[in-house]
Specification:
Length: 158
């Protein structure tokens, strides 16, 4: 039995007809066409599907879409403004904080949540808070460098 819900994604409201068992990941990718959010393990173990819900990083493969109603959802597509990359995205591009790129959207979204909560984190803090995001290419050193650089670029701003 399908039900209509409204989701606020990247500042826009979307009315969608879904099955009650559909995950937020499925709705973002399949109903809204926001394919930047990746389906990695589909078990909540890799972090590739991380999005922001009311400013906190969540694994969209583990959340039912109906549970996201009334929350502000931000995907990787919602970070840039007016065609300009977000400082976190710029840092990842310039410092090589990505390799194949598959895990990058989830890592960037987690980094955004970290820097919003702790604008000037230590490397150790970033490592601990990013522990749920896996990179098959093992680009962790560049990921941490990119997050630390973004912290400086943002100057304590969100």
């Amino acid at each position: 039995m399908k039900q209509a819900i409204a989701l606020t994604v990247n500042g826009d409201v979307y009315e969608v007809l879904i099955s009650p068992n559909q995950t937020l990941l499925e709705v973002l990718r399949d109903k809204l066409g926001l394919t930047g959010t990746k389906k990695g393990c589909d078990l909540g173990a890799c972090g590739a599907c991380s999005v922001l819900l009311d400013g906190e990083a969540y694994l969209s493969c583990l959340m039912l879409a109906v549970d996201a109603v009334g929350k502000e959802i931000v995907t990787i597509e919602g970070l840039s403004e007016g065609g300009d990359l977000h400082p976190i995205q710029k840092s990842f591009v310039e410092l090589g904080g990505l390799q194949c790129g598959f895990c990058t959207p989830g890592i960037v979204m987690t980094a955004k949540a970290i820097l919003d909560e702790e604008p000037q984190p230590t490397e150790e803090s970033v490592k601990k808070k990013m522990a749920g995001n896996l990179c098959r290419c093992t680009g962790y050193k560049k990921v941490i460098e990119s997050v630390m650089s973004a912290s400086g670029r943002m100057g304590g701003k969100q």
